[in-house]
Amino acid sequence: MGEGLRDERLGDGPVCVLYGERGGRYPSGNSLLIEGERESALVDASLAVAPRRDRLPPPARLLHSHCHEDHVAGSHLFPEVPWHFHELDAPGIRSLEAMLEIYGLPGEIEAGFRELLLRRFHFRPRPDPAVFRDGDVFDLGGVAVEVVHTPGHTRGHSCFHVRWPADGGGALYLGDIDLSSFGPYYGDAWSNLDDFERSLERVRAIEARWYVTFHHIGVLDRASFRERLDRYAAVIAKREERLLAYLDAPRSLDDIVRHRFVYRPGDEVPIADPVERRSMSQHLERLVAGGRVEALAGGRYRRSDA
Asked: Taking the domain 7-233, which CATH number applies?
């Protein structure tokens, strides 16, 4: 099947988690196969789908939690079925140029990422994506898949609540609310910190029997989900606390980017600088608006009580 790949069916129900390499660690991921009485749906066709292609039941549709490279890496294998995205993310799959706009990378980094999208993630444009909205329900025959719009990671990022008779709450697929120790990622042009925090509160309130992430964690029960969600959300506050401590003296945004608050200093990540800039700009904006940080002349910032 491929090194590190395994399948996990949730109880006796219609949902099977198709784990990627190393538990779905990037660039791979954990896709979801949902088999109803009338049709099957594949959620977030990752790189892990290709080695399983011949034994999967033919899906009637592909559901995407959002439009990012690792979540569409296996979609090209199913050109004959509809590709569904939230209406706010659907524009990103229509062309390579549109996809690149989601990230907002500077030119020298974008050139390398463009090649990666084509070569590593098999990007194929889809000029006619099908769109869904918050609250839409896909009836697969005895299985209902409800869209839960959870923006922040991207504008259209969505979770899927899968329910079936006697399901005990069913399964909530979390996409890239991945509950990892890295914490929430809101460093793209289409990301939004405040939206992400609201989305975390929304999923916290959803009762399910199982919770499934695209990366790292996989399947969790309710208690484990709440515990990991608390730790995950706390990463945002910790980044902000570290930023406030650093602003004991006037600092520019360039200083903040070099100091690193999202990635660790020394991490060899090509996109680190633009991600730091976008992420910490959002923290600065709300700290200034809240009166906790002063915007000084010359593009510098300082903690208000420093």
From this structure: 3.60.15.10
Sequence-distant (≥ 6) Cβ neighbours of residue 224 within 8 angstroms: none
Q: Are 154 and 89 in contact (CB under 8 A)?
A: yes
Q: Is the pLDDT of residue 264 over 80?
A: yes
Dist. CA 111–CA 283, nearest whole Å: 28
pTM of the complete model beyond 0.85: yes
- Domain segments of the chain: what residues? 7-233, 247-303
Q: Which residues contact 39 (CB under 8 A, 6 or more apart)?
A: 59, 60, 61, 140, 141
H/E stretch holding 219: strand 219-220
Chain segment 122-170, per-residue pLDDT in tens: 999 999 999 999 999 999 999 999 999 999 999 999 999 999 997 788 9
Task: Express each pLDDT in 199-224 by its tens digit.
Answer: 999 999 999 999 999 998 999 999 99
Determine the residue type at 146: E
**Which residues are within 8 A (CB) of 18 and not within 5 positions of it... i.e. 6 or more apart?**
5, 7, 30, 31, 32, 33, 46, 48, 49, 52
**CA dist., res. 52 & res. 68, Å (int):** 21
Strand partners, 211: 172, 220
Cis peptide before 184 (omega within 30 of 0): no
C-beta separation of 292 from 304 below 8 A: yes
